[in-house]
Amino acid sequence: MNMVNVKINGMPLSVPADYTILQAAKEAGIEIPTLCYLKDLNEIGACRMCVVEVKGARSLVASCVYPVNEGMEVFTNTPKVLKSRKMTLEMLLSVHNRSCLTCKRSGNCELQALCKELGVETADRFEGSMPDSTYDDSTLHLVRDNSKCILCRRCVAACANQHVAVIGPNSRGFDTHIGCMFEQPLGAVSCVSCGQCITACPTGALTERDQCGEVMEALADPEKYVVVQTAPAVRAALGESFGYPIDTNVEGKMVAALRRMGFDKVFDTNFGADLTIMEESHEFLERVKNGGVLPMITSCSPGWIKFCEHYYPELLPHLSTCKSPQQMTGAMVKTWFAQREGIDPSKIVVVSVMPCTAKKFEVKRDDMNAAGEEIADVDIAITTRELARLIQLYSLDFRKLPEEKFDDVMGEFTGAGVIFGATGGVMEAALRTAADVLEGRSVEEIEYKEIRGTEGFKEAVYHIAGMDVKVAVVSGLKNAAAILDRIKKGEADYHFIEIMCCPGGCVNGGGQPIQPASVWNFNNVKALRAKALYDEDQAMTLRKSHENSQIKKLYEEFLGEPGSHKAHELLHTSYVVRSRY
Description:
Layout lengths: L2 E6 L2 E6 L4 H7 L23 E4 L6 E2 L10 E3 L3 H16 L15 H8 L17 E2 L5 E4 L8 H8 L6 E3 L6 E3 L16 H5 L5 E3 L3 H9 L4 E6 L1 H4 L15 H11 L3 E4 H22 L5 E2 L4 H10 L13 H17 L6 E7 L3 H5 L17 E4 H10 L21 H4 L6 H15 L17 E8 L2 E9 L1 H12 L7 E5 L16 H4 L4 H15 L9 H11 L5 H7 L10
Parallel strand pairs: 1-5, 11-12, 11-14, 13-18, 14-15, 17-18
Antiparallel strand pairs: 1-2, 3-4, 3-5, 6-7, 7-10, 8-9, 16-17
Helix pairs in contact: 9-11, 9-15
């Protein structure tokens, strides 16, 4: 590795030659503030918060994009630098909606944090006209309030990185604002509801559509039987909202919190993940044996499904017809569980806690009503962030809660269900079951490490029962588009493909806790969250979906066998062709 020698604030340092000043400063333990910069996503040097002085340079330079070179001398906190940063903040505040006390991002807003750090108390000297702003609540998953936008363009980069690019800067100069083509509302364009723009936003300009009030109303209704289910990735990130390290699994405290809110049953979506594997593995093997459409592609991620419906409708026959774990769990609550407990399914409210904003869209899809035309499988989908908000609304001291277990019936799960939250997890879980079925024995080698990791594309070939099974794992829609183009050209000879909408999988979903750029830029947050799930899988006795005793009981008592007529009726779904424009 080529190294160069630099000085930062008089301290000599040797750093890789391809570093920027921002990276070099971090290596030296010096923090340089940023607003627009997101590593590998939005490196444009636009906001000017990260400016520094470089000896010999004619003006201040943006450290996030300025490369180091041999002998460079950098000064990060001179009076000139601090004055520039403070003025930048004052100018941003002069056109900003400063109703911070009622903003969902208060306390977790990067603009607010920098103003406190740099001692900005007023924006009076730049007060004047305010640009026109838009409030857009046309989608099921998010609310856009341009009065809080600082034009950092991080959301634009995130949307483009998802191959969707339905938002961008409109107009020029003082009137510049972020919007859709021809100023259409977001609900009128081919947004896939992934929420990556929300997690990229440094302020409260983009937030999830909050449904905490609906949950509280259901819990307060004595006529309703309220059931909650939690996705695997939620336990790997919820703790971040309460000061825990990023890789902390808070499953037990999460269950305790939900029980104290008053939910009648606390179930685990991992049960639905195990059930999904049973159906998906059966479907895959049937396609292989009977000449079905290959490669088969997973259907767990609603953002990915919507993307395929908008952008690649000709490839819909490749999708598994299995509902997602969220929907399967909801369907079984309102059929099997309701029947067992003698509860009218119309009285049951199923709340799901998901790392994903697209789940808010998924619950409203057609063909998601196993218990009857007017009875949705899932009634309300909230994000990890909304669950953290509910815990606070119910005045629960999260860190002092005991460790508790999920309720029986749909509280048992295997390690295969747990790893659904990480990219590659669905494929690995499916292979664990498919290998046992094809080999006709319990295969001991269940670590499919070639398809683990946060990379956007992975592939492998596994020799199972005399057959070479070629698989691919993709996360992020830019990578999904690349592999779909190869399928269209006949260049992708895979048997099975896992696609997750969000880069890194559900652990990086649009509904997860928002880490500031200062954390995101220098830590692999996706890998840390995924580690919490793989650690839980490794510690479990049962690590294959078909070993789940409650899943076995479900098939014995209710469904018959994987792929049965009843299973298809309740656990499978259909897709629609959606307009791109």
